[in-house]
Amino acid sequence: MLINELFNLQGKVAIVTGGGNGIGKACCETLAEAGAAIAVADLKLKDAIAVVEEIIAKGGKAIAVECNVTNDEDLVRLVERADQELGGVHILVNNAGGGGAGRENPFKITVDDFARVFKLNVFSAWRLCQLCVPLMKKDGYGSIINITSMSSINKSPNISAYASSKAAINHMTSNLAMDFGPEVRINAVGPGATKTAALATVLTPEIEERMLAHTPIKRLGEPSDISGAVLYFAAPISEWVSGQTLFVNGGGVQTLD
Question: Which of 234, 127, 148, 144 lies closest to 180, judged by CA?
């Protein structure tokens, strides 16, 4: 296969959850540039529409879908719209998620709070896999990319719900590879500290300096760094790779002393 074909996603349809901003938006843009049609799913429809307009302006094909990933009816509708309006589902990027940021004091959060993080980060991804894999198998091509986190392997205070949910994503990914093959591959990408709006709410120059002390490549991540790894897993170049978690983190860990 020629090198340009190894990253060619012409004729493929991708669903990206949380696609309206940050890493999700970068994934939509990168996959569209590689030729895929994109179902941009986001809790905020206006953000999804803005991404779709950018893709279409560049000659791509995309639809915007308002989606709360904790609502099963929304997940079913998302997959149905991608299938009916774009022509199938071949790539799924489970990017939508939340929690963490040092706000999970174990003596202040409730069991319901903890369960809500798992419903958002783990259960929604598992359910979308369940909905999409039959369509992927029917077409003979499928790649699922779960967005996990460095928090899944780091140890930090006040983040137990988020961190354990992302650890669950890692292990779920490796186990589902056994269930979904040979037609469908499933892998995970674990971002380190990446410059998104979410990180901006807590990042200061002092915190960034302390993070970079643990980072051989002396900068924080950009959303495009993560979407490049997603493209690798989505494209034919990784056709013999499944059940893996790739951490994209500048070669280090952005934890604080």
Answer: 144
Q: Are the C-beta atoms of 42 and 20 separated by less than 8 Å?
A: yes
Give residue limits of the domains in the chain: 3-248
**Token pair for 42:** 């986001």
Which homologous superfamily is 3-248 in? NAD(P)-binding Rossmann-like Domain (3.40.50.720)
Q: Which residues pair with 187 in a beta bridge?
A: 145
The whole-angstrom separation of Cα 12 and Cα 144 is: 13
How large is the average pLDDT for residues 231-255? 95
d(CA 95, CA 213): 28
The whole-angstrom distance between residue 200's C-alpha and the CA centroid of its chain comes to 19
Q: Which two tokens stand for residue 249?
A: 């983190």
Instruction: Locate all alpha helices (DSSP H) within 84-159, ordered by sequence.
Output: 111-118, 124-139
As a residue count, the chain comes to 257
Amino acid identity for residue 212 in this structure: L
Q: Is 0.70 surpassed by the pTM of this model?
A: yes
Catalytic residues: 162
Q: Which two tokens stand for residue 90?
A: 């071949």
Percent of the chain with pLDDT over 90: 82
